[in-house]
Design goal:
Layout lengths: L8 E5 L2 E5 L2 E2 L3 E2 L3 E5 L4 E6 L9 E5 L2 E5 L7 E5 L4 E4 L23
Amino acid sequence: MFHKRHHHTLHAFNEELYAVAGRFIAEGNVTSIEVYNPLSNQWTVALPHGPDVFAASSLVINNKIYIIGGCHCKQVSVYDVDNKKVVSLPKELPYDSKGNASAFMTLPNLL
């Protein structure tokens, strides 16, 4: 990993690990998105300047990472893995949401 960080989100999908945003006390917020490939044992920077947030929650849907809230943040950002771009959704959350959790589930049509 090129940038030390804590309070980031980490996802395992597409046979890689995606470290998103976070914080490093000595430097402040870390905005990059970095990807670890276990086959090559190497990190790469997928996006040098992504969402400026830490303590957010996030989830992956259809090769997009949704970064939700965080400390002092009401924003929802979406990182498109295929296009390597991040956009902010137009509506904000009604409150700061640090320390929250999120999950994506596919439910059978039994409900």
